[in-house]
Amino acid sequence: MREETYHAVRHYAFNLANFMIRNYDDAEDIAQIVSLKFLLNEDNIIKPLAWSATVIKNEVYKRAKKTKGLEKLLEKTELEKIEEK
C-alpha cells in the first residue's frame, strides 16, 4: 500500500503543480519536494492527497513569491539603467 500511495501522491503533485503554474520543470521540482516531504511524514498523514494539495499550494506560492521578488529586482535594475542615462 505504501508504494501505491507514494505513486498516487507523486502523480497528483505533478499534475496539480503543472496545472497551477504551467511550467513542466517547476512542476517536476515541486512534485519531487512533495514526494520527499510525504516520505518523511508518511506515518503522520491521514489523507495523503488532501495533505499533498496543501503542500503543493504552499510550494507554488513560495516559488511565485521568489519569482516576483526576482522580477522586482530586475525592474529596479532596469530603472537604475534608465536613470543613469
| Rg (C-alpha, Å) | 17 Å
Q: Which structural class do you get from the secondary structure elements?
A: mainly alpha
Beta-strand portion reads: under 5%
Number of domains: 1
Largest sheet: none
Poorly predicted runs are: none
Shape: elongated
> Helix content range of the residues, please?
over 70%
Contiguous helical run count: 3
Average pLDDT level:
85
What letter string, H or E per element, gives the SSE order? HHH
How many beta-strand elements? 0
Distance between the termini: 65 Å
What does this 3D model show about the protein?
- By secondary structure, this protein is mostly helical.
- The protein has one domain.
- Helices cover about 90% and strands about 0% of the residues.
- The chain has three helices and no strands.
- It has helices spanning about 1-20, 25-40, 50-85.
- It is elongated, with a radius of gyration of 17 Å.
Provide a concise account of the structure shown.
With 85 residues, this protein is an all-alpha fold.
Primary descriptors:
85 residues, mainly alpha, 3 helices
List the helices and strands and how they pair.
Elements: H1 2-21, H2 24-41, H3 48-84
